[in-house]
């Protein structure tokens, strides 16, 4: 076998491998797992603990959690359990655990996302900060050479310009936790020219100027950019776009939830992309996993939260408490 043949037969490295590799030297983070009352939700926490990513505090009905563990054949005897009767109480209790300093990450179990987020954004007892809360997918797209952050495709339906500033800064801070000192942010629209006929192009132009004025920091922004020009060097060259961001984006800032949700699902279902997810802008990272997620995606979501939590510990991120 020639050397060239050996190289072509090597297994292709997954872009999540670098994220997981960065976690190997970090201590697991104490994580409040909210209402893990379904086999996939509980085993996801166990898998992440076995991988050295989290130290779970299970928040939910003790008897039900123990029974699910027995039926699934997983060992949770070393895990602390906060015994509460139902999902909404579990969400509130998990938030209390974080506020008391006993956990640095929240992880969604088998409850509805809106139940969890209602506890997170509660006016007096929640985990809100001065930042707008947003969601980011950290996607592994097979045809793209690095993780691609897409935001916001889950939380903010029709974000204002000020909301987009926070959504953008949240994603930049996330990229910093991966080791990107100056991530490239592509602010997406349908076209590359600023026009009053498409409001998202005006927001894109304003966000770029906000970065110039220091209202957004730690990244290189450009926009408006269409998707092809944001991720394809050839498309950007064909359009005559000269930009350090075009064709090499680390972050895709979408115009609204509809566009972001459609874009993320296109990547997932048409290109077999993996989509780790995390909620940003609260006092702690919030891991959102789905029953449909692969083990690799669940591990990547936990790895992202671990990197964020350690970055905040070391004060690499803007203090948000």
Could you explain how this protein is built, in words?
This protein is α/β, with parallel strands linked by helices and 321 residues long. It folds into 2 domains: 152 residues, Rossmann fold, CATH 3.40.50.10950; 149 residues, Isopropylmalate Dehydrogenase. Helix content is 42%, strand content 17%. The protein contains 12 helices and 11 strands. An 11-stranded mixed sheet has the order 3-2-1-4-11-10-5-6-9-7-8, with helices on both faces. α2 crosses α12. The chain is globular. The N terminus and C terminus are likely disordered.
Topology of this protein?
Blueprint: H1 3-9, H2 15-23, E1 29-34, H3 39-50, E2 54-60, H4 62-72, E3 80-83, H5 87-99, E4 105-108, H6 113-120, E5 134-140, E6 148-151, H7 161-177, E7 184-188, H8 199-212, E8 220-225, H9 227-231, H10 233-238, E9 251-253, H11 257-271, E10 274-280, E11 286-287, H12 295-313
Helix pairs in contact: 2-12, 5-6, 7-12
What attributes does this structure have?
alpha/beta, Rossmann fold, 2 domains, 12 helices, 11 strands, 42% helix, disordered N terminus, 11-stranded mixed sheet, 321 residues, Isopropylmalate Dehydrogenase, disordered C terminus
What is the compact description of this entry?
The chain is an alpha/beta fold and 321 residues long.
Helical content class: 40-55%
Can you tell me the CATH class of the largest domain? Alpha Beta
Number of helices: 12
Radius of gyration computed on alpha carbons: 20 Å
Q: What is the strand content?
A: 15-25%
The CATH level-2 architecture of the largest domain is identified as 3-Layer(aba) Sandwich
The residue ranges in which pLDDT falls below 50 over 5 or more consecutive positions are 1-10, 316-321
Task: Write down the CATH topology of the largest domain.
Answer: Rossmann fold
Number of discrete domains: 2
- Calculate the terminal CA-CA distance, rounded to whole Å: 58 Å
Give the SSE string: HHEHEHEHEHEEHEHEHHEHEEH
What structural class do you assign from the helix and strand content? Answer: alpha/beta
Average predicted confidence as pLDDT: 92
Strand order of the largest sheet: 3-2-1-4-11-10-5-6-9-7-8
**Shape by Cα distribution:** globular
Largest sheet: 11 strands, mixed
Give the total of beta strands.
11
